[in-house]
Amino acid sequence: MMLDQLIKIFPNCVDRLRMKTLIATLILLSLSINANAAKVTKVSGGKALIDLEGDTALVGDQFFVIDSSGKKRGLIQVSKVQGGRAIATISKGNVTPGTTLQRYQGRMSAAPNEVNSSSGGSTTGGGKKAWGLMAGMVNSSMNVKSSTASMTMSGSSFNLVGYYQTYLDKNISVKALAGYETLNVTGTAPSGWSGGTCAAGSSCTADIGYLGMNVLIRYSFARTKTMEFTAGGGLGFLFAMQKSSNVLDTAKISTNQTIVGTLGMDWHLDRRTYVPIQFDYAMFPDNNTSSATQMILRAGYGWKF
Predict the structure, then answer these.
(1) 119: buried, middle or exposed (CB in 10 Å: 19+, 13-18, 0-12)?
(2) CATH of region 129-304, choose from 3.50.50.60, 3.60.15.10, 2.40.160.20, 2.50.20.10
(3) pLDDT interval class at 238 (50, 70, 90)
(4) Mean pLDDT computed over every residue of the chain
(5) Number of other CB atoms surrounding residue 98 within 10 Å
(6) What is the reported pTM?
């Protein structure tokens, strides 16, 4: 029925059999082309494995990644060809298994602009897991109480940690940090002070080095092409390694816990590497003799995998 309707469009064609044969051939050719479209079979570590499905590809060829609705979701470039398969580097966008490919013919610098805007040319993608190193500048504040008076102490120090991070879903991630944490404060004992070995009017100090571990739950509340912004919280666990103080009883300093609030920004250099910047506010538990808080600004370098 459909073929007869199409033939009516061409009244000058007298050989209906030839016209039917031509139209059927064109339909079969179209189905054959679609069936042989190359497709992505696996994605890992910024690379895509391609089944060429009878198509040909050379190293350096570029392909748009097409989703089921026909929209361009990414751009890849072939880096290796072997047999009927190829390996390509993900240049832009969101590439998932099962998507098909459309060859790009043109300049490499122009190609990314044609990828659907929902992909955004983002470098905030990549692997769901990451690790890295971060150095931190710490500003500590402590309130120390004795039987006769109280005083406020403050100071600054540095720390160094490594971290491991994994995403539970698109926006929620768990970040575990472990390394050397410090608390270094000084203050002047007020009049009438009687505590430790520092006398009224003299300098009181507390210098503690910890083996620390923080476990944070983070929520990604905003993303741009190169930035990811997070907020969250968690717990810190501290094990004293070295301690000296003339105002605290060091014999009672062994372990401690903190409640931590965190804000972060990950600046993605590409799909594999990024610069994490993080601000933590840590609260030590209040006890009969002291309480403390810390503001920690951390920055470092991370790798996704």
Answers:
(1) buried
(2) 2.40.160.20
(3) very high
(4) 84
(5) 10
(6) 0.62
